[in-house]
Model the fold of this input.
Amino acid sequence: MTTVDTATPRHAAAPVPRKRKRRIGPISLSALTWVIAILFVFPLIWMVLTSFKQEADAYTDPPKLVFGPTLDQFAGVIDRGFLPYLANSAFVTVLVVLIVLIFAIPAAYALSIAPVKGTTNALGFFLSTKMLPIVAAIIPLYVISQNLKLLDNVWALVILYTSMNLPLAIWMMRSFFLEVPTEMMEAARVDGANLPTLLYKIILPVVAPGIAATALICVIFSWTEFFYAVNLTAARAGTVPVFLVGFITSEGLYWAQLAAAALLASLPVMIVGWIAQNHLVRGLSMGAVK
Amino acid sequence: MAEVVYADASRVYPGAHQVRAVDRLDLTVPDGEFLVLVGPSGSGKSTALRMCAGLEDVDEGAIRIGEREVTDLPPKDRDIAMVFQSYALYPHMTVADNMAFALRLRKMGKEEISTKVKEAAAMLDLTKYLDRKPKALSGGQRQRVAMGRAIVREPSVFLMDEPLSNLDAKLRVETRANIAQLQQRLGTTTIYVTHDQVEAMTMGDRVAVLKDGVLQQCASPRELYDRPANVFVAGFIGSPAMNLGTHPVTEAGVTLSGLTVPVPRGRLGGLSEVTFGVRPEALDLVSDGGFELSVKLVEELGADAYVHGELADGEKMVVRVDGRNPPRLGDQVRVGLRDTEEVHLFHPETGLRIP
Amino acid sequence: MTSSVLPSNVAAPATATPANKQASAKSAAWRRRLPLLPALIFTIVVTQIPFVLTVVYSFQSWNLVRPGSRHFVWLQNYVDVFVDSQFRTALLNTVLLTVFSVLVSMLLGLGLALLLDRKMIGRGVVRTLLITPFLILPAAGALLWKTTMFDPTYGLLNFVFGGNTDWLAEWPLTSVIAQIVWQWTPFMMLLILAGLQSQSKEVLEAAQVDGANRWRTFASITLPQLSRYLQLATLLGAIYIVNSFDAIFLMTQGGPGTASTNLPFYIYQRAFQGFDIGQSSAMGVVVVILTMIVATFALRLMFRTFSVTGGVK
Done:
């Protein structure tokens, strides 16, 4: 439809297109961001490069950027028995995440949607458990583990990591629960849902991203935990950090192989983190909103 | 105080299918006028407002405020103030600070700022809320703070983007009147966006109707009501909407299911059919003559009643009748024109008004 | 099961006697506590038992090297802790480490978040790159920095800046701080980015219209909005960084001397190298008390800004 403007005269000329190319500023800012990002992760890039080098190429002065790549280092890492440690880490991490979620979700529910008296106290208590430096508890833990025959046993780690991750998991799940609209739950109640249905069919699907975020945080902190792993386990139940420590206690630093080991050790969590980035952001920021 | 001119201004979103959100808008708002931009969702009214504010790029054409061309200027250099639909108050600042923020940016003296803020607060009945933060205010109060923030700047132009849509109905009507009075008092040129045509008709000196980015008509409310420029405006303005339908043209005039409305041949210049419009207010129940209507629904509103019915050929019509004795569901009534002049004719293809 | 969403009086029993009502109200309250119990009991058992034991050991003079001489000395260990100059050094180092790591990583994180809070090509890729340091093993990160960055002969830092500074020997605490900052900046960045992206677009536009330039908008509008995110970041970061062990153990072993020894490492030294269980346990308890004092102040400060109620839904 053509326009009819009864009050003002029309301009008959063709429209004047405007070249609004003021975008030069932002392009250079983008370039700057890229440069900064590359610089920031340069140690990692170097690690990846080094892991493909022959040992001789790895520590040179000046550092070499061009070299003949090889997979020998990775093979060497695996030859040194990496895989069992990897399996242990995977086992521990998966179990910890499962158990933490099984404990944390009901607990968070009881602290948010169906609040109990003393909620603030409970929350405070959970938070306070993180105040004890993990180093200080090692002696009693060592003694207890010895008595319970849990030394060099993955279950010791599973139990410990669960207790370490529970406070944060409860905190995070609680803030996700607080986001579920009350009206949605009331509507379900009116529709006749009982508590299990309410929980599984209504609430959990809504907080599913929160569960993913919490799980991701648990994965990161369980996989990378160093102190207890190194002190309470050895060859049988050792996790990946224990394996890495082996590299500095042997006759010297094999840089290329160390890089390969570090890369392999970190790769699983890196991949999981990359894929679930958005959940990670959501999870980390949830606590802030509440 | 200044006039606002949209000179063939367009906003085009790039991409595979270029979307012309605002298409060659050509509009002059004289100094001191209250102009309402109205239209359905997606009509480009908010975009046009934001182009004037400097929050949307102008891809074609130009915008002038006063004598200045502001097309390339950032919002802060345009001497405009804006009231947002969501109010956009600064959540961590008190009401007083919210209103003073812009003035502080202009390095005004503390005394002067305080005076202006107090004046604006008095005008809007906000004086006792000056120390509160937005979250401690009701919706209506927040809306007034948003207005206060704009008033205190004493700009050349007020821009308002659906400022009343988040208020409840009663408050909306009250605030509508307050805004109109305020604008009259201050005399500032105002461009006001709304999707509610009743709001548009009651508040504007002139109303600009937009559809799909194109200006349909810009005229006084009376003009829009009496002489809509095309089918869209005819159907958009007026509540309930005008009855519109396309009917065949005969020697005698336009035929509507039995009733023939006389129209001089010359007017219709060779068309075999025409889009015919008549408002519910222009129809009446008659004892004979007219056309038959089968009553499907009666809306009783007290003084008036609106009868929704169907003609013999299935076409739907709405008729306004006296509310004291309306017909009942299922009745067959006869409907006639109050005045054969109160008929609107539009071209069946272009939709333009036939004068 | 009682309805936990609708008001509890909806589920009140029909029997009228006050005693009955009280009893069933009580049992209802216990049922509501039920979901909390597994987590609570588990945590209490796993954390408090070791803690209690630590306290018990702290009252004893117990050195593994001299078995059989284990006996209670009550507060003597604590006195020893306070006169121990190395403990004070470790405490100072811990404070410096935590404060600077948190501050610097927050500033860097803020800068990176601001850079990322715009539309740009490959924004997702850049973000992916930048979060990676947080995802790798801290142990791996520490070893990485030790070998590829800090090494006097082959390290990249010396390659770039020239010279052959032995960074870990000459600037031990600073080097550790650098490594920790590198690891934690992505965490800060993500939190702050979430805060930046949660801003209301219209509030920013209102500031634009009011005449604020980019700096003013950031200072007056964005920063106050961010403050709760910044506080959370500080709290979480501090909790974990105070306990830093990996970096020091793998890079400097607390040295040279005690230049880069922090409290966790010092406790470890006393327990695993000095075999002094009593002393190290006392230090652990002191650290707990200190942490709780600081945390209580910090939390009180934080919770004034945004209230944490006991869940109101």
User: Anything to note?
Assistant: The longest strand of chain C covers residues 60-61.
